[in-house]
Amino acid sequence: MFFFGISILVSCQPGAPYPEAMRQAERYISQYPDSALHCLDSLHSSIRDEPQETRMYYGMLVTKARDKLYIEHTSDSLMKEVVRFYESYGDADKLMEAWYYLGAVYRDMHDTPRAIRAFQWAADAGKNSRRYDILGRIYGQMGTLFAYQLLYEDAMKSYRNAYTCYLMQKEEAGLVYSLRNQGRMHESLGSPDSAEYYYRAAYEKALETGNRQIVDGISVEFGNIYLNLGKPDSAKIIFSGVTGLKDDAIYLNGIGRIYQLSSHPDSARFYFLQALQEQRPSQSIYLKSDVNKALATLEAEKGNYYSAFNYARKSLELEDSIEKVTQTEAIGKINALYNYRHTEKQNRRLVKENKEKNRQLIGAVIFMAAIVYSCFRYVKKQKRIVREHEKQLADLKKEQYRNSQAYILENEKEISKLELRQRTGGDEDKLAPQIELLRTNNLEIQVAQKKKKILETVLKESDIYQLFHQAPYRQDISVTAENWAKLQEIIDKTYNGFTGRLYALCPKISGHELYICYLIKIQIQVKDIAKLLNRSASAISNSRVRLYKKICREEGNPEMLDKFILDL
User: Fold this and answer.
1) Count of CB atoms within 10 A of residue 68's CB?
2) How many other CB atoms are found less than 10 A from the CB of residue 462?
3) Between 238 and 16, where is the model more confident?
4) Is there a contact between 185 and 147 (Cβ–Cβ < 8 Å)?
5) Which of 1, 96, 103, 233 could share a disulfide with 119, CB 3.0–4.6 Å?
6) How many angstroms separate the CA atoms of 295 and 87, rounded?
7) Buried b / exposed e across 290-324, counting CB within 10 Å, b at 16+?
8) What's the rounded Cα separation, in Å, for the pair 131 and 127?
9) What is the pTM of this model?
């Protein structure tokens, strides 16, 4: 019994050895985190019987392994308990590491203020540590979070500290990424020459590592820096060394930009479209927005204005998704709280009592600020959408008028006035070109009108047109999805991309509403539309009223929708 009691006392001491599975996990965790996690999982049922320090270190190792495997953290309860333990336990290195992984948890939970605060406290706990690898990761993570908050100067300081730590550790990969990150910050701060310098240093250091994955990643970014500087030839040299990222969206976008800057629009368009293909690695809404904007420019230069408009619209929609509420003000408050904590260390009891109140207050301020800003952004976006829609309708009316008989008559009147001025001694050299231009315009309108009439004749004589006109009266005819597709195709061909122009005016139009528009366009009677769509005539009329308001943003009646669709 005496020996058993002594054994229990010894096992409860902080210096007691860890279980063999934990020691194996420590050895595996850096290079083989999956094996480390497997070892730790084997202790899941027995770890509760171990001393408290063993349990806390076990919890930190589990979090560390999951973090290295990029398994997203969803709860802070475990690491908060680990941090509280090591604050009183006295192991500075483990306290530093505990704060770091608590920061990693908050990072995954998208709680940026608390993540930065945890990383700051991790750096403070490790100010005398020689664990430069962990310190480098701490400053690197801080820099990234500051950068996301647009605090580029603070991010730059953190990345410099990370570089110093990796230099002490002689960790080549860390040095590469620290140099690259400083280059990113210089680019964000509008210092292209400094950005080029740091990317050049990161690229050369990457080549020294001999790691192809690191070299390719840095090369793609470095090549894009040259493109931003308007140096496509230099970018081409860098991109030519890339071997493993041929399917990467950033790489494909970079190649497209090279061709664009080198005046090869067809090749540029090919690579931009490749970059937009679904499931491309490194594809993001930022890249999609830029690529759609570039495609809009290429299409506009070729005179494909309708296609250019669609790409520009996609780019604008993506830009709206990109803008999110930042927490810059909240970061300042967290920093103030951090500084206060350092100056008031001797009164820790009071800080602990007020900590929850301060957290709630800051959360309330952030929440209210987020609501106000979200409302402001929503109202601003809605106003912009209304303005754009009004402009679309106004442009449509202008286009319809300029293709009308009334416009031809207006031009004829103007021609008569100019000819009268010629006969009464006007300047013939100046008036003749104007008269010729007006006559040419009228001729073009007449040709377009004639072409439209021919296309409408072809439409009315088509089998699909006859099918839809006969279907309401013949039980042996059933309208299929293929029939609707053929009707859309011939309507779009006859009326200059009718479906696309309708979607541009009303992106949220439903399939049912689209069918109503097609049937109105081929002049099907309301009672027959009701039969074709298996609805009552009153239901079709109500749909027409709603659809008019949806498209024109004003109240109207069914006949107003019919006229709008027939004129479109």
Assistant:
1) 16
2) 16
3) 238
4) yes
5) 103
6) 56
7) bbbbbbbbbbeeeeeeebbbbbbbbbeebeeeeee
8) 10
9) 0.53
Other Cβ atoms less than 10 A from the Cβ of 111: the count is: 17
- 276: number of Cβ within 10 Å: 20
Pick the closest to residue 236 from 216, 219, 211, 217 (CA basis).
Answer: 219
Q: Looking up tokens 């027995």, which residue turns up?
A: 46
Rounded Cα distance between 69 and 63, Å, is 10
CA distances from 351 to 87, 122, 160, 332 (A): 15, 18, 32, 19
Phi, psi values for residue 188, rounded to 5°: -65, -30
* DSSP one-letter string for 290-327: HHHHHHHHHHHHTT-HHHHHHHHHHHHHHHHHH-----
Distance CA 338, CA 309 (A): 50
Phi and psi at 256, nearest 5°, equal -60, -40
Query: CB of 254 within 8 A of CB of 241?
Result: no
Buried residues in 143-182 as b, exposed as e (16+ CB within 10 A): bbbbbebebbebbbbbbbbbbebbeebebbebbbbbbbbb
Radius of gyration of the CA atoms of the chain, in A: 34
| CA pair distance 86, 79, nearest whole angstrom | 10
Say whether 253-325 and 16-252 share the same fold: yes
Single out the residue of 309, 311, 306, 308 nearest to residue 291, CA to CA: 311
Tokens for 277, please give them: 């293909």
More confidently predicted of 87 and 351:
87
Instruction: Please tell me the distance from the alpha carbon of residue 32 to that of residue 24, in angstroms, as a whole number.
Output: 11
The correct CATH number of 16-252 out of 1.25.40.10, 3.90.76.10, 3.40.470.10, 3.30.70.360 is 1.25.40.10
Half-sphere exposure (Cβ direction) of 238: Cα atoms closer than 13 Å = 30
Q: Per residue in 358-416, pLDDT tens?
A: 778 787 778 887 887 877 788 777 677 777 767 777 777 777 777 778 878 888 888 88
Enumerate the domain spans of the chain: 16-252, 253-325, 350-402, 406-454, 462-567
Whether residue 171 contacts residue 190, with contact meaning beta carbons closer than 8 Å, is answered with no
Q: Provide the 3-class DSSP secondary structure of residue 510.
A: coil
**Alpha carbons 138 and 145: distance in angstroms, whole number:** 11
